[in-house]
User: What shape does this take?
Amino acid sequence: MNHERVFCFFICIVWAALTVAYAKHLSLEEVENLEMQCLEAEKPKWTVIHEKAIEECKQHVVKHRGDPESCANHFNDLLPPTTKKMRDSRRLRLDPPLPICVEADEARRHFSVNPK
Assistant: This one.
């Protein structure tokens, strides 16, 4: 059991180190491209989450004699982002994050510290 944990920890460390090393060689355009890939990869997942939240809200509101149409406006923060909002710390994140999004975040952090 401990060997499995050590191995998983080792793999995570190597993956993180490779991500940081890869991020060091990116231009601003490449960083923005990674961010857009992340947004596109997250879009289907956010759409499902958004639709499920609206459906649950509508069922709850109907039971309590409210307006089911208000649910769509209430859950607008669960819509998939349509613009580059990767630098916005208030943006909701998927948990666990997609690998391309982790890569994009690391690249943005590195580029912010060391712009080319």
About this structure: The radius of gyration is 19 Å. The mean pLDDT is 76.
